[in-house]
Write a structure and sequence with these properties.
- The protein is built from eleven helices and five strands.
- With about 240 residues, it is an alpha/beta fold.
- The chain has two domains: about 50 residues; about 170 residues, Hypothetical Protein Ychn, Chain: A (3-Layer(aba) Sandwich).
- α3 crosses α4 and α9 packs across α10.
Length: about 240
């Protein structure tokens, strides 16, 4: 076994908890084998990036203080699924107000975008510049190929009327106080995409990727960290996608 593979596998053994938050090894290997790259080499790079980024000196967990409602829930969104995970959070709030007559102040919702769902955290400009829809074979809520982030409302044509689900889109929910968190380990993939296409070093690529997050989204050490902390703050857990 080549030394670089042995070194990677040794690091893998001591960092299993971190690797658990990375995309599936089998999925990555299958994708990378189509490109002609060595899956072990590429996964080793992603592993190292994730370990470095997981060592950020400070993380913002002040969002936990905003979870004050009587009804508390965290929506775990590990996949794209046409933006369904985000819509479900909005539907929950609408149904609790309609059926249980809950007031907006009674509701505290957290959305955690992790794993493949991390791309939902990125602005449309990122999707356009890095061909996210095409590269990830994204489909919208009608199961049609799309180049649009399905969690964001599309701009309305002049004089156009709001569409039925526009009020449930990510930015609209955030404007109503929904907390949206993103997995930093999965975000490493967005950083790597910027670094590769723009030929930037890691710090510059990360800074650009962060600037292209949907404003207001808070990076957390990992999606699992965010899920567990939300539950410890009293949120019911929902597998949303």
């Amino acid at each position: 076994m080549p030394s670089h593979r042995r070194d990677f596998l040794q690091r893998l053994a001591v960092g299993a908890a971190t690797v658990a938050s990375l995309p599936s090894v089998l999925h990555a290997a299958a994708h990378l084998s189509e490109t002609g790259h060595d899956p072990i080499d590429t996964l080793a790079g992603e592993f190292d990036d994730a370990m470095r980024l997981a060592a950020e000196p400070e993380w913002d967990t002040s969002w936990t203080k905003k979870i004050t409602g009587k009804h508390r829930v965290v929506f775990d969104v590990p996949g794209v699924s046409g933006g369904a995970g985000v819509l479900r959070a909005g539907l929950w709030a609408r149904q609790y107000t309609d059926v249980l007559k809950a007031l907006p102040a009674d509701l505290s919702a957290v959305i955690v975008l992790r794993h493949e769902g991390i791309i939902l955290a990125m602005q449309q400009a990122f999707w356009d510049e890095y061909k996210v829809g095409k590269r990830n074979k994204v489909r919208d809520g009608d199961d049609k190929k799309t180049e649009q982030n399905p969690a964001l409302a599309k701009p309305l044509a002049e004089g156009g009327k709001p569409r039925p689900f526009d009020a449930l889109m990510l930015e609209q929910q955030m404007a109503r106080g929904v907390i949206v968190l993103a997995c930093n380990l999965a975000f490493a993939g967005c950083v790597r995409a910027v670094a590769k296409q723009d030929k930037l070093k890691q710090p510059e690529a990360r800074a650009k990727a962060i600037s292209m997050l949907v404003p207001g989204i808070i990076l957390q050490p990992s999606g699992i960290f965010a899920d567990v902390l939300a539950q410890q703050t009293g949120c019911a857990f929902v597998a949303a996608s």
